[in-house]
Amino acid sequence: MTTLFVTGGAGFIGSALIRLIVAESDWHIVNIDCLTYAGNLESLAAVSDDARYHFSRTDIGDRAALDALFAYYHPAGVIHLAAESHVDRSIHGPGDFIRTNVTGTYTLLEATRAYWSSLADGARSAFRFHHVSTDEVFGSLGDTGLFTETTAYQPNSPYSASKAASDHLVRAWHHTYGLPVVTTNCSNNYGPCHFPEKLIPLMIHNALAGKALPIYGKGDNVRDWLYVDDHARALRTVFERGSVGETYCVGGHNEKTNLEVVDLLCALLDELRPRTDGQSYATQKTYVADRPGHDKRYAIDASKIQRELGWVPRESFETGLRKTVQWYLDNPDWVAHVVSGTYQQWTEKNYGDRA
Ligand code: NAD
Ligand code: TYD
């Protein structure tokens, strides 16, 4: 029986990863998540009754609680996703980003190291700590070029700086203590269960609610979009087969300006849920003040993970975006509970603390 810790499993990507692992493997999963505003156990409804899924409401900064979880479950590895993840929030309040992304990762690394050091030889060498990071640590590209595993770190926002710090801690724990780590740096994700503060779910929600679609600056900033289930498959691939000490860039080869993304979303909504007045959702587009320090362009060269581990994305942007819009249309309760805040009551009522 293989038991795996997933931190941040109630978030957007963590919940997709847990749904994938429970469906496609026989592993036991312990979801370690303190349920910030971004943690939503409704995203795990599909697996919550599975005997191989376990949940602990634990902060990754709580060393004693982590030690107890390691002692109880004896995991074969950790996939670490818990983080504060929204750039705009990091601009308005960077403290939580330092606390969770930097200090929290440090505390998790130390708890992991203590447990890993106590393992017998075979289990020690088989153990993996997989750190899930972002391409935003590399800073901003100009009109040409791609991020690779050897691109120098130049983080620009408090979010990306805190993630860069965590990447460096993970690297140091490998080089100094020998902890068997792998790191992935992924581009922007989109898909089901995405909190409607990020571009794509915010635009879908606002469009359907008849609200403005706020485009920062001229809408010409470029992001490289990856469907969340493709990222989840990449994470499983790297966790299982990645080389210790290596980093892997993960991306979808889907560079789009923000304006292109919003226009595609409006066209899909016009087709799938036309406005009752016959107008296009595109009439709701509104240009607003730019984000301070707004990175111009992100784009990933994912050839290493393709060449060495055989991972390629399955979804194109067009197929993935259509699935995403359809999911939001089919799951109005998920969004309504987030918008009203009742998802947090639902969480308390249905789960509380199972640890
Ligand atoms: P998210 O904000 O949706 O979820 C984060 C989860 O972490 C939430 O469930 C939250 O409750 C939990 N969490 C936060 N602080 C915690 C703490 N102190 N202790 C325990 N749990 C805590 O984030 P996401 O978009 O799913 O991103 C997951 C990871 O992937 C992050 O590390 C992020 O940096 C990285 N990443 C995200 C993207 C993206 O496009 N969203 C792209 C590349 C990498
Ligand atoms: P976001 O989803 O916040 O991801 P990130 O900042 O991590 O890339 O934003 C994606 C892009 O969309 C980014 O260039 C900022 C822009 N954006 C808007 O134009 N309007 C919005 O309301 C939001 C949330 C983002």
What does this structure look like?
Helices cover 44% and strands 15% of the residues. The protein is α/β, with parallel strands linked by helices and 355 residues long. The protein has a single domain (3-343), classed as NAD(P)-binding Rossmann-like Domain (Rossmann fold), CATH 3.40.50.720. The strands form four sheets. Strands 3-2-1-4-5-6-11 form a seven-stranded parallel beta sheet, with helices on both faces. The protein has a two-stranded parallel ribbon with strand order 7-10. Helix 6 (158-177) links the parallel strand 5 and strand 6. The protein is globular, with a radius of gyration of 20 Å. Nicotinamide-adenine-dinucleotide (NAD) is lined by residues 7-8, 10-14, 33-36, 38-39, 59-61, 81-85, 100, 104, 132-134, 163, 186, 188-189, 195. The site of nicotinamide-adenine-dinucleotide has 31 residues, from helix 1, helix 4 and strand 5.
Set out the fold topology.
Layout: E1 3-7, H1 12-24, E2 28-32, E3 53-56, H2 63-73, E4 77-80, H3 87-92, H4 95-117, H5 121-126, E5 128-134, H6 158-177, E6 181-186, E7 189-190, H7 199-208, E8 213-216, E9 222-224, E10 226-227, H8 228-241, E11 247-250, E12 255-257, H9 258-272, E13 285-288, H10 303-309, H11 317-330, H12 332-340, H13 342-350
Parallel strand pairs: 1-2, 1-4, 2-3, 4-5, 5-6, 6-11, 7-10, 8-13
Antiparallel strand pairs: 9-12
Helix pairs in contact: 1-8, 2-4, 4-6, 7-9, 9-11
The structure holds nicotinamide-adenine-dinucleotide and thymidine-5'-diphosphate.
Thymidine-5'-diphosphate binds at residues 87, 188, 198-199, 202, 214-216, 221, 223, 258, 291.
